[in-house]
Amino acid sequence: MQARPLTRRLTMLNFKLPDMTCGHCVKAVTQAVQAVDPAAQVVIDLPTHRLQVDTAVPREVLVAKLVDAGYTPA
Ligand SMILES: [Cu+2]
Predict the structure, then answer these.
(1) Could you tell me the pTM of the whole model?
(2) What structural domains and CATH numbers belong to the chain?
């Protein structure tokens, strides 16, 4: 058994961001996520426009921030 204290309740959220099309977008999206949760784990697959976030922040908060940044989830 691993001694890894879990201090945050993490949820894995998945988004499809059609407007995320280049390295700049990846950076902007990552910064947008980390603006609402600095500890968020971000995984991005650019070819499929997928964003996966492990975060304690509610989905709607992230969606609002992504829309704000110009990346509306499909
Ligand atoms: Cu771009």
Answers:
(1) 0.87
(2) 11-68 (3.30.70.100)
Write phi, then psi, for 23 (nearest 5 degrees).
-60, -35
| Cα of 22 from ligand 1 centre, angstroms | 4
Report whether 44 contacts 26 (CB < 8 A). Answer: yes
For 28-52, the pLDDT digits (tens) are 999 999 999 999 999 999 999 999 9
Give 26 Cα–ligand 1 centroid separation in angstroms: 7
- Report how far ligand 1's centroid is from the alpha carbon of 19 (Å): 8
